[in-house]
Amino acid sequence: GETSLSAKGQVQDLWQAPLFTGRFEASSNGVQNLFSVAGWQGGLVDLIVANGRDGAVIAGGALEWSRQRAVVDELEAVAGTFRVSGRGSYESNGDVPEINAALTLGRVSLDSLFVTEDGSLWNANPVNWRALDDFQGVVSLTSTAVEVAGLSFSDVAANASLGEGVLSFNPVTAQFAGGRLTMGGKFEGGAG
């Protein structure tokens, strides 16, 4: 498929410690094509592809990039029917890379995580949470709607923290069944 990536800005200290600051734009006629060009794969990519219904994607924002750190600000992206905006950072100075983000999402379906290929609810196969050991950080998410296994939650807000293989959501708030829902959650993965 057709994929285009471009960046415009300034590079400082090109030979010793290159630092790019500027803006980026990316577009593709399919979400999966864009991730393939970047060499990204795995569960999160599968979730985004499923929500974008592998439709066309366009994204842009401010970018700061060095060998150990990337920061995207003023992000605006649309992939098929999936929308995301906000900011995020990735830093790999220590043993475990750190991801921090504040993102606003459109409608999100989590069915690809929990529903089987034949449409049965609540997949009997366990979700592989081992990837939780690979990162640490804090993520703040809001979404107009989250759907999973026939349940629909609106006006969702979640604060998540990740460290030492444990992903915690505290609190998660949403509108559900005509009322307000507040809950927390914890997922433990990793080698233990």
Write the layout of secondary structure elements.
Elements: E1 3-12, E2 19-28, H1 31-38, H2 43-52, E3 57-65, E4 69-79, E5 82-91, E6 98-109, H3 111-114, E7 136-148, E8 151-163, E9 166-176, E10 179-188
Parallel strand pairs: 6-7
Antiparallel strand pairs: 1-2, 2-3, 3-4, 4-5, 5-6, 7-8, 8-9, 9-10
Query: Would you identify the regions where 5 or more consecutive residues have pLDDT less than 50?
Result: none
* Cα-to-Cα separation, first versus last residue: 41 Å
**What does the overall shape look like?**
globular
Strand order of the largest sheet: 1-2-3-4-5-6-7-8-9-10
Report on the biggest sheet.
Answer: 10 strands, mixed
The percent range for helix content is 10-25%
Give the assembly state of these chains. single chain
The rounded Rg comes to 18 Å
Number of strands: 10
Strand content: over 45%
Overall pLDDT confidence: 86
Order of helices and strands: EEHHEEEEHEEEE
Question: Helix/strand/pairing class, anyone?
Answer: mainly beta
Specify the number of helices.
Answer: 3
Explain how this protein is built:
The chain is mainly beta. It is built from three helices and ten strands, in the order ββααββββαββββ. The chain has a ten-stranded mixed sheet with strand order 1-2-3-4-5-6-7-8-9-10. It starts with a strand and ends with a strand. The mean pLDDT is 86.
Question: Key terms for this structure?
Answer:
192 residues; mainly beta; 3 helices
In short:
With 192 residues, this protein is mainly beta. Helix content is 11%, strand content 57%. Strands 1-2-3-4-5-6-7-8-9-10 form a 10-stranded mixed sheet.
